[in-house]
Amino acid sequence: MRLAYGNGFLEYELPPQTFVAEGKGLKPLADPVAAVREAMRNPTASPPLRELVNVQSKIVILVSDSTRPTGADIFIPALLQELETAGVPDANITFMVGTGAHGVLTADELAAVLPDGLGQRFQVQSHDCFAKSRLVHVGTTSRGNEVWLNQLAVEADLRILTGAVSIHPFAGFGGGRKALFPGVAGYETICFNHSLMLNPRAAPGVLAGNPVHEDFMEGIAFTGPKFLLNSIVDEAGAIAAIEAGDVNRAHLAGTRTVLESAAVTVPGLADTVVASAGGFPYDINLYQAVKALQNAARIVRPGGKIILIAECSQGVGSGQFSEWAPKQLPSQVLAQQLKQQFVLGKHKCFFVSEILEKGTVYLHSNLDDALVKSFGFVPLADLASVPLQGRIVALPHATATLPLPQGLAD
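^ thats the sequence. predicted structure below, dont judge the formating
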């Protein structure tokens, strides 16, 4: 089987009885630029974008960082053309990278976020969740979360939330509201929200009753006018669908498309799950690759094995993850500590600990063997060295696939 690994592929010989768990997938749009224009001009539950802006409008366009494929090289130029047609001058438009708590982008990383040439035309900023002087308090959610957001984004006349709708391990789905919150939120605000992931309803593919999602929605309601422009991408990162308009309604439409294409029923639990994170950028670092590991863990039996294939070209990806993972604390201990004081990065250790308590994880990556062992994983240089026996399931696109054990498909 040919599996994505970084920017390339590797071959892995699997037994013929291997069950390959893939969703129905999506076909890339024949004319994505036309689809973007149509979505902006006939949006869901919103006036057309042109009617929301004028020559005086101050606009902040929120964009994703490099850890998520979005098709921004296609939809950003189309978005800017629409704003130009509406009379909005370049000087009134600011791009802000919604890094959340992933860290401030370097100058080179910032330049790579936008399509060629746009960085010279527009002001481009990377959000810093620790820069309290640049944050403003906008309200408190019903769960007690003090919501602090980037002041520039809050004071704009219109916030355009871009990104891609995808499966998320505890927010239900990515995209939509996440460009604003946690994208440009303060660190404590993000930590409070993410502490809600310990609730059983905080699960992939679940929005109704999901406290993480509901806290997001309450938080973004404290800001003014918003317009959503989200893509749904296929396994190769090509745009397969576009949703635009009301942040809630348009995002919900996108989640239905994603769930229909990404969910797959797996007949019974596996003795071994072979999971490729899906190549770059899904396996850009170990922090991101844990999402693939979580999906694989959904369908492995207790005492089973997971073989995770993730290049991790940029290392671990989180200082707190690197600090806490080698302690290899039990999941119950981590849960108690996270309830008392939530620490981003440490929450990944909780996920990993739960999985390691269930079975063995082998990791094929370019990380140092000692580092891999310190996280509790077994480094795997030679894929053929692990015997594949019993029921075997392969997840070629583990980050973007939602495997459902038989009986949980509904």
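The chain has a mean pLDDT of 95.
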